[in-house]
Amino acid sequence: MFGFVPQLLKTLKMKFVRGVSFFMLVQTGLGVFLWILYGIPLGYPIIYFANGITSIIVCLVILSYFRYPSNSTYDDLKEAGT
Q1: Are 22 and 65 in contact (CB under 8 A)?
Q2: Rounded (to 5) percent helix, strand, coil in the chain
Q3: In contact, 12 and 61? CB cutoff 8 Å
Q4: Phi first, then psi: what are they for 16, rounded to 5°?
Q5: What distance in Å separates the CA atoms of residue 51 and residue 67, rounded to the nearest whole number?
Q6: How far apart are CA 11 and CA 17, in angstroms?
Q7: Is 73 exposed, middle or buried, given 0-12, 13-18 or 19+ CB atoms closer than 10 A?
Q8: Residue 17 and residue 65 in contact, taking contact as beta carbons nearer than 8 Å
């Protein structure tokens, strides 16, 4: 459930997403969304609440993927002063 929190914190701290696979994030987001759809008709709140939290975190990582550069190294960013 909180597996992407360290990645999100690192991305926000370093302001770059080098090494983060966009397709992995999309696949994880899709899987979490399908778990939510599975949990709602069953009426198990733990399934859709836990996966809802995970989907929010994954969405934040995806948004940071578009906000911060992914093809620069940390040294390049440091030299540029960003």
Answers
A1: yes
A2: 75, 0, 25
A3: no
A4: -155, 155
A5: 24
A6: 6
A7: exposed
A8: yes
Query: Which of 17-21, 41-45, 52-56 is predicted with the least confidence, judged by mean pLDDT?
Result: 17-21
CA distance 19 to 6: 14
- Give the DSSP H or E segment for 43: none
At residue 5, φ and ψ (nearest 5 deg) are -60, -45
**Separation of first and last alpha carbons in the chain:** 32
What is residue 68's DSSP assignment?
S
Asked if 27 and 57 touch (Cβ cutoff 8 Å), the reply is no
At 65 the pLDDT is 84
